[in-house]
Amino acid sequence: MYSPEASALAEEIGLKKGKANLEVFAATVEALASSDPQVVAVVSDSRGSGKLGPFGAAYPKQLVEVGIAEQNLVGVAAGLASAGKKVFAVSPSCFLTARSLEQIKNDVAYSDNPVTLVGISSGVSYGALGTTHHSLHDFAALRAINNLHVVCPADNYEAEQAVRAAAVLEKPVFLRFGKAALYSLGSEAEQAFEFGKARLLRYGDDLAFIATGETVAHALLAAEKLKREQGLEARVISLHSLKPFDVDAVLAAARECGAVVTVEEHMVNGGLGEACAAAILEAGVGDCLFHRVGIPDEYTVTGSQADIFRHYGISMEGLFSTAGQMLERV
Length: 330
Prior knowledge:
Rossmann fold, 2 domains, five-stranded mixed β-sheet, globular
């Protein structure tokens, strides 16, 4: 996931490697279920990949298995939610957000059933399994559905807080998790987690990285590399909520830094980058340099998640280079 240079830099600046967000999700749901029998997990042959084996063993009456039938998964989850259950519907994001899109739109969002849809192994987490198993469309598809929060946590703190917030929100939520172990990106006391409020991880006014999910750590390391090698101060924002969207944080970055790089484990069409670009242009911030880093409009190269990230510049080294090239245009 990280080059030797990036791993060494992370250690130098005190970043600690934690768990995969998916593991934190499973542990948090189990903790919630221990005190609330209304918490239910619905799975599509995904209790293993969703790390919910211990949950099912501890609370077998609070786990529903529908088999490899993602449309049924969402429909059953919506029905349970309409009857008062606090439902987490767990399935690989590539299937959940494509095969079940109509059910998400109608049974969950339009019907206002408070289901938490949990997309696991998101982005390019499946690596060499390739395009059929990548979920590079989910931001774009789900941002276009009304009444649905879209959230992509960047570290274990954001993951736990997002799960707990979703459990009490009583509105439809989509949570997006990958498989990689993640660095802890900052003190939990520094900034309370809230849907729709970006998390400022590093202040700077030469350039802003606005990133989401597993790409955020790469942006934070790139910012440190820019400071050490070029004396530049880069702002780093974890924009975990695609919906609701923190327009104020994006506009402040554009106005105060004058250069914005968005970073996402998603196709550049329809995701974080386009959301930020729309906000900046609609506010009339016309003098801001802007660049989207993500997966271009093509079928991805074959390889691990780390291979794919490196190929498309979603890495400390790639983002350092992108930022340098952008600022040369000033």
